[in-house]
Amino acid sequence: MGRVTTGASDAAVELDNVTKTFGAVRALVGVTVRFEPGRASIVFGPNGSGKSTLLAIVGTLARPTSGTVRHGALGHDRAAVRRTLGWVGHESLCYPDLTGRENIELVARLHGLEPATAFARAKERFGLDAFAERPVRTYSRGQRQRIALARALVHSPRLLLLDEPTTGLDRLSTERLIALIVEEIQSLATVVVVTHDPAFAEQLGGDRIEMERGRIAHVTRAPHSAA
To answer: Is 128 left (phi over 0), alpha (psi -120 to 50) or beta?
Structure first.
């Protein structure tokens, strides 16, 4: 299934004066930011700066306490946005007793795709080879990450969120990850990456968003996307 695209501005994700509180804790404070299709937006900041909360709000896992979130052409309600969302976290969240193939085919079914065809496409694109027929609990960190990314991209999402995706990856696995992210950017996906890895961020390129104490401290717009 190919990605359905609209004009870039139509599919932008915008947060306007968003605040998120957990009791007395203010995780986000007056955050206004725009994530553009066809670009990587890389979010930096120390632990506790609000990065994960920002990602959760963009990904509809959390609602803002105040402020506005707009997903544009991606959808006007949570269900619609989630149908076009791909997410790769620090942990793969794959079912450990299923094989990689079974994990991918399960997600394909949930998105109304033909499972065998979806897996064949993923196997070729992600170089899954024979390990995809083993239970995920037997995988290395790099193998789990490849299955997680294949699963997240099986339905050609237009919004891709990545939370510390290079943790535990070796150089070759990181380079493969960057190449796959660049393919998504070139297909006009909106890509948001949370990372503590400056070398990975430098290789990927894109816009840099620095967070501090729940606020946007600085935004550096790249002259070109990684595409």
So the answer is: alpha
Sheet bearing 66-70, strands edge to edge: 25-35, 13-22, 66-70
Res 110: pLDDT: 94
Tokens (6 digits) for 136:
């995920």
Domains of the chain, with CATH numbers? 8-220 (3.40.50.300)
Query: Among residues 120, 125, 111, 114, which one has the least CA distance to residue 187?
Result: 125
Half-sphere exposure of 194 (CA within 13 A, CB side): 23
- 193 with 42: CB under 8 angstroms? yes
Q: Phi-psi bin for 224: left (phi > 0), alpha (psi -120 to 50), beta? A: beta
What local confidence, expressed as pLDDT, does residue 4 receive?
39
Task: Please name every residue paired with 66 in a beta bridge, in sequence order, or none if there are none.
Answer: 19
- For residues 131 and 111, what is the distance between their CA atoms, to the nearest angstrom? 24
| Residue pLDDT, tens place only, 95-154 | 999 999 999 999 999 999 999 999 999 999 988 988 999 999 999 988 998 899 999 999
CB atoms within 10 A of CB 65: 13
The token pair at 227 is 């595409």
Euclidean distance between CA atoms 41 and 51, whole angstroms: 12
